[in-house]
């Protein structure tokens, strides 16, 4: 019984710790689904005696994490992820999140336009004359948020194919810090190489020593 109650929580933790789902935008959907599943557990007759435990789990989650459903950065990160978009954004927050996404896109477009303007200062008179006419590309880009939200494509590789500015928004809010596991493995094999007496090693020498240490088993044969 206890394992059935805690299963949704365990799976949610697996999702949040997964390297494949290491995006800030995963938090709101994961916690939202977890709360839904815990509420559903209360309706299962065979878990009737576990209701106090379920209530405590729900209470604990809300106490620690309910703020994420109001956090602008987390909501935008979720909306900018093609797997979720607005699906798990609270109803009273959807219009606000869409407005903020459009503001983000506009800001990035303005920056890009400024860069183009700077580059254009060195162009000839013909280019300057052509600059008199409004850019159709900017008009199209202003609709990127609407196009993105109406799309059903969930794979990141395809979702931003023709939406370069929305892709920048996704990267801005969903680029996480790299895992430390690789560094920990590196330092675990370094041993004497990382001691103070070796602190003047050049990069090349350090790399050679480390590779020799890691591959020393190849020499034993």
Automatic annotation (TrEMBL):
InterPro entries named in the record: RNaseH-like_sf
Recorded superkingdom: Eukaryota
Protein name: HAT C-terminal dimerisation domain-containing protein
Native source organism of the sequence: Coilia grayii (Gray's grenadier anchovy)
